[in-house]
Amino acid sequence: MTDERSVVVHHVTKVYGVGAAQVAALRGASTAVRAGEFVAVTGPSGCGKSTLLHLLAGLDTPTTGTVLINGTDIGRLDEDARTAFRGRHIGVVFQSFNLLGILTAEENVALPLTLGGVPAVTATRKARAALDRVGLGARAKHRPTEMSGGEQQRVAVARAIVTDPSLILADEPTGNLDAENGRAVFDLLRGLAGARRTVVLVTHDPALAARADRVVRLADGVVVGVPDASGL
């Protein structure tokens, strides 16, 4: 692990709605994650965990404050630039799998590459390698409806790593799984963190969070109990 900061969140607010209907999901949140860390984000329901992850992924932009990914302020990029940046540097795993039912596992995993203009032969080869890495090479031609929930989530992990991103973001990836499959997916994500890859995982499970390198706790839209971006 290096001292290079992969993620810096500095005094970020995120407000939804207008006027009397405004809701502040984040209220001046600050933290940082070093390259190669495996960090768990925890906190009660509604504290801003998923909002924070969406900002890190560039799926949304902060109302105020700065979100730096590998030194790039993604909040200042327009939507097309954020999409391109995410395609090069970030892999995302969601709780609900988000696989396309009409595609095979191999085709689902290859999709980020084909959408990025990678030739089909190369995309298929890399997709198969990613499926092998998550232990599903033999299921490459199966569709999601032919797979268990744990297998579908492992396909989603393969899709997240197929572009070889430096940052993996996982939003409650074990939330729809039984305990055994949840631990297996967690262990898979835990094993992805290292010198070249950072993993940030949102979880409500304290037992899983305790196995992370570090825990970032959110409460009422602010980070509590850990150093802020200036102190890490």
Q: Quick gist of this model?
A:
The chain is an alpha/beta fold and 232 residues long.
What does this molecule look like?
It is a single chain. With 232 residues, the protein is an alpha/beta fold. 33% of the residues lie in helices and 26% in strands. The protein contains seven helices and ten strands. Strands 6-7-8-3-9-10 form a six-stranded mixed β-sheet, with helices on both faces. A four-stranded antiparallel β-sheet has the order 2-1-4-5, with helices on one face. Helix 6 links the parallel strand 7 and strand 8 (198-202). It is globular, with a radius of gyration of 17 Å. The protein starts with a strand and ends in an 8-residue tail after the last strand. The model is unreliable at 228-232 (pLDDT under 50).
